[in-house]
Structures are given as structure tokens and as C-alpha cells.
Design goal:
The protein is mostly helical and 71 residues long. Helices cover 59% and strands 11% of the residues.
Length: 71
């Protein structure tokens, strides 16, 4: 029962962080416009693939999860 409680608390913290991120990330001008993000604009078509942003976010999340697993 103790592990389930820890999981529920951790899930709540993650949801709060995701919610805060959704509120404040659109206000960060550099996120999503990094060198390495792919943008192709044609007449009626725009393709956007945030490659560099995805790599940086993946590294940050990997470090956070690694540090959480060390405890």
C-alpha cells in the first residue's frame, strides 16, 4: 500500500509540473525556435519538427529521472 501512495503522489507532482509547463512554456521565446529545429514552409503547407528542442528536453528529463532513481 505504501508504494501505491508514493506512485499517486509522484503522479500528482508530475501533473502539476506539466500544467505549469503548459502555462509558462508558450511565453519562453527560445523554446521551439532553436537552431536545428526544422521548418518547411510551402504555399498551403507548413511542416515543423522541433528536433533540437526535443533533444534538449529529452536530456533534461533523462537527468531528472536518473536523479529520482538514485534515491
Amino acid at each position: 500500500m505504501n508504494e501505491i501512495a508514493k506512485f499517486i503522489i509522484a503522479s500528482g507532482v508530475v501533473l502539476i509540473l506539466v500544467g505549469l509547463g503548459m502555462m509558462f512554456l508558450p511565453k519562453m521565446p527560445f523554446l521551439g525556435r532553436l537552431p536545428g529545429d526544422i521548418i518547411v514552409k510551402k504555399d498551403n503547407f507548413t511542416f515543423y519538427f522541433p528536433l533540437a528542442t526535443s533533444v534538449i528536453l529529452s536530456i533534461i528529463f533523462t537527468i531528472i529521472l536518473y536523479l529520482m532513481g538514485k534515491r
